[in-house]
């Protein structure tokens, strides 16, 4: 009987230690919620909103990597939208799907919008706080979610690219991304100051997106000045907001392949 009890206790311990993954698409609050509701647009038949035009309840939507593909890498994904909306379908759900197919857990960020109508939020004060809280939350649950706490990055598009750049340059021990993927970012000159301990970065933009290509190149040069390992791809055509939807006839459509190669080169993926 004693041996049976010991065996049962051992099985109970194993069960208790099993990974507690969030459900795909599960929304996890980040705190700092206001009383006012979010405003969003749905598409009939779609399980998740197409875009948000007001955010008062910051959160992350969790998309754990499939168990058999899981590489232990995770990315907090910040969609763009000029800080007046979140184009969360194109630069959130679609990106999460691509990451999952490559064994990467995705956490799509719903952050407060500084330029939404009537907003009292700020980019550096509120949106960045949401992004920082997201990184800390994912890292604090790394063991529960089968994630390597030293392989958690950030990926941002346009206004989300500004957040990704801010996260990669303004951080503490718990909120520092291990790498940054910054796609056609937009921010004011002087908004980003690169420290010597910034994480490695992958940057991508299109040459026919003039204002954002200037931002991208300047950020790359600032990273280089501080000796931060970085890779930049500027494609001739693609304009702004291509995400993962660029026509396959355009070279810019292959940028996710270049990202995956970079991640392998940086020993983030095998």
Mean of all residue-level pLDDT scores: 93
Helix content class: 25-40%
The whole-angstrom Rg is: 19 Å
The biggest sheet amounts to: 8 strands, mixed
Report the top-level CATH class: Alpha Beta
CATH architecture classification:
3-Layer(aba) Sandwich
CATH topology: Rossmann fold
| Total domain units | 1
- So how many helices? 6
**Shape label:** globular
**Residue fraction in strands:** 15-25%
End-to-end distance: 47 Å
CATH superfamily: Alpha/Beta hydrolase fold, catalytic domain
Structural class: alpha/beta
- Given as residue ranges, the uncertain stretches (5+ residues, pLDDT < 50) are 1-17
Number of strands: 10
Strand order of the largest sheet: 1-4-6-5-7-8-9-10
Give, in order, the helices and strands: HEEEEEHEHEHEEHEH
Short characterization:
This protein is α/β, with parallel strands linked by helices and 270 residues long. The protein is 31% helix and 18% strand.
Structure description:
The protein is globular. The chain has 6 helices and 10 strands, in the order H-E-E-E-E-E-H-E-H-E-H-E-E-H-E-H. The chain has one domain (about 20-265): 3-Layer(aba) Sandwich (Rossmann fold), CATH 3.40.50.1820. It is an alpha/beta fold and about 270 residues long. It has an 8-stranded mixed β-sheet with strand order 1-4-6-5-7-8-9-10, sandwiched between helices. Strands 2-3 form a two-stranded antiparallel sheet. Helix 3 crosses helix 4.
């Amino acid at each position: 009987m004693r041996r049976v009890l010991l065996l049962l206790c051992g099985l109970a311990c194993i069960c208790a230690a099993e990974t507690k993954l969030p459900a795909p698409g599960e929304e996890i609050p980040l705190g700092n919620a206001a009383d006012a509701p979010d405003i969003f647009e749905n598409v009939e038949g779609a399980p998740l909103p197409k875009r948000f035009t007001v955010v008062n309840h910051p959160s992350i939507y969790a998309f754990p990597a499939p168990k058999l593909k899981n590489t232990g890498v995770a990315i907090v994904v910040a969609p763009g939208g000029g800080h007046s909306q979140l184009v969360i379908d194109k630069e959130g759900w679609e990106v999460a799907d691509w990451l999952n197919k490559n064994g990467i857990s995705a956490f799509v960020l719903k952050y407060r919008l500084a330029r939404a109508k009537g907003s009292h939020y700020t980019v550096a004060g509120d949106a960045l706080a949401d992004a920082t809280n997201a990184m800390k939350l994912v890292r604090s649950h790394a063991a529960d979610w089968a994630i390597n706490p030293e392989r958690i990055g950030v990926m941002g598009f346009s206004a989300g690219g500004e957040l990704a750049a801010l996260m990669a340059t303004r951080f503490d021990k718990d909120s520092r991304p291990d790498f940054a993927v910054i796609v056609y970012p937009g921010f004011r000159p002087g908004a980003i100051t690169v420290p010597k301990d910034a994480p490695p970065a992958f940057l991508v933009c299109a040459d026919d997106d003039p204002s954002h290509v200037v931002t991208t190149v300047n950020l790359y040069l600032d990273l280089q000045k501080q000796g931060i390992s970085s890779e930049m791809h500027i494609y001739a055509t693609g304009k702004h907001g291509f995400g993962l939807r660029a026509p396959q006839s355009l070279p810019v459509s292959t940028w996710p392949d270049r990202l995956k190669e970079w991640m392998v080169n940086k020993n983030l993926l095998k």
